[in-house]
Amino acid sequence: MLTDVDLRAHLLAAGLAGAVGTTREESLRSYRLFAARDPRLLIGLDPEGVWGERELLMLMADRCGVSVDPAHTSGHDVIDPERTLDALDALAERLAVAAGRGEPVLLGTGHPHRMLGFYAALADALSAAGCAVLTPAQGRSVDITTQFGLRTHNLDYVRGVGLVRADTGERPGGEPGAHTHSPLPVRTALAAAADAGGPLPELVIGDHGWVCGAGQLGFEAVGAADVNDPAPFVGEAEGSVSLVVPLDDGVRSDYYLPLARYVLNRACLSQ
């Protein structure tokens, strides 16, 4: 069994916490854009409070462990591994509750090339425990604004995890999907579930627009976020997002699998 000591060592060795790949410049730029209410950084969140750059820096220092010094403007940013471990423990507790109640769940990621395996492991275990893993609006078209303009994507599910694929004739089962921060996929999925009269999720698990978009609509949402994505942490501070695990979301996909094993062991769920 993977202990917290083992996982802490893995977090540091893999660059998931400690000194991470995200640069301080990236983080500070994101905080400036969020403070200006740039929708690319809000990713579906409509904050209630006024969040200036200083307030965001203080929040991210509290939730992630980044330096609170605004004069620190270069180099790699940092994530405190103890904060990551604490959040993973809290995630395990919430999954255990979901499994015990047999809650319907919805999972989705804007980082399919990196984090699909992590969420898929959670989906497999929750399904085995009796939770309905929902896949509403599969195949539905979603128009998402990208750096290249408005592009049509298709909503798909891989092992129960929602993602989008660029509408380029790509066959399901090929590349994992497209990277996106957009909340439109989860909004589309939740609207389709409501229209169908079927079960709605009692818990949404994901990142980027999946967690912020669902939380903004009043669904309980938990997930992971990097230090250059302040929106989920603002949502957590204001109560629209239930839980955020701070970690680097851009490392190798297999580096996230020990985290899934740790969470599922803590939750006493089968893998």
From TrEMBL:
Pfam families: Phosphatase (PF15698). It comes from the Bacteria. InterPro entries: Phosphatase_SCO2771. This is Phosphatase. It comes from Streptomyces griseoflavus Tu4000.
